[in-house]
Write a structure and sequence with these properties.
DUF1553, two-stranded antiparallel sheet, mainly alpha, DUF1553 domain-containing protein, 48% helix, 2 strands, 299 residues, globular
Length: 299
């Protein structure tokens, strides 16, 4: 059943970074053979038995022991299976462009869950269209639409959304079955300086101040704990907790001597629930966590 085999393989590729047939665009004689042919056949038949329900297939895969493995490298497997074709561990790979932004939206609590509707225009750096051949306008959204999922972002083929381009989104000039995954300094600079991510860091700081209320020094450890859970889906270890506490404490002390800088970082809404230096410290905590490799990487 070719249709179900191709569909199952592409869904598998989304969860593991590589399909059971690595040439997911070519199941013919020139394509790569499946690494687990019996598994591919069984999943194809199971997909049909489930009424071609992708949701049911997703549940089947993510509840399997293979998917739930840790992604740590095992020295005993490096010589036997360096590419992890036997799936003895989970794969570790960077999130796709839209998903990276959606993850930041979710962590900040600003994600707008509305489904469907026209394309939207989230914030982007100024001057993006200054060097294009055709004049284009980008009417940046001012309401909740600026927090829609990346799926709904308007896309100019000749001048695509910069954040997505940095994270290897296809150019829409040709069919793409598999996205490249680069690892460049520009991605870290984008996470640190893109106006959309800066706004989401401010949103995350406000969420921390509201969800963990109280005197700043007494609640700092709890706020760091909460921020790490929201951004990395795990608790911070002792070293991370100490480093982040020292970082925030140092920055808050600096902001107490620079009120203008503190007010530039903290939004009016944030200053209503925390003093400006403390609010600015929370924004920097959020920016630091949103700019980590662990945040944009699926373990």
């Amino acid at each position: 059943p070719l249709t179900s085999r191709v569909t199952v393989n592409r869904i598998w590729m989304r969860f593991f970074g590589r399909g059971l047939v690595e040439t997911e665009e070519d199941f013919g004689s020139q394509g790569a053979p499946p690494t687990h042919p019996a598994l591919l056949d069984w999943l194809s038949l199971e997909f049909q038995r489930l009424g071609w329900s992708q949701k049911s297939l997703h549940r089947l895969i993510v509840t399997s022991e293979t998917y739930r493995q840790a992604s740590q490298h095992r020295p005993d497997l490096l010589d036997k299976d360096p590419r992890n074709l036997l799936l003895a561990r989970q794969e570790r790979f960077r999130l796709e462009a839209e998903v990276a932004r959606d993850a930041a939206l979710s962590a900040s609590g600003l994600l707008e869950p509305t489904i469907g509707g026209p394309s939207v225009f989230p914030p982007q750096p100024e001057g993006v269209y200054a060097f294009t051949q055709v004049n284009k306008s980008w009417p940046t959204e001012t309401g909740r639409n600026r927090y829609r999922r990346g799926l709904y972002t308007f896309f100019f083929r000749s001048a695509p959304y910069p954040l997505f381009t940095t994270f290897d989104t296809p150019d829409f000039q040709a069919v793409c079955t598999r996205r490249l995954r680069s690892n460049t300094p520009l991605q870290a600079l984008t996470l640190a300086n893109d106006p959309a991510f800066f706004e989401l860091a401010q949103g995350l700081a406000l969420r921390l101040a509201i969800e963990v209320p109280g005197e700043f020094a007494a609640t700092l450890d709890d706020r760091i704990h909460r921020a790490t859970l929201l951004c990395l889906s795990r608790k911070p270890n002792a070293t991370e907790q100490r480093v982040l506490r020292e970082f925030v404490t140092r920055e808050v002390a600096a902001f107490q001597n620079d009120a203008a800088a503190a007010e530039a970082l903290a939004t009016p809404a944030l200053r209503k629930v925390a003093a400006a230096p403390e609010a600015a410290g929370l924004v920097l905590l959020a920016r630091a966590l949103l700019n980590t490799d662990n945040f944009i990487t699926r373990e």
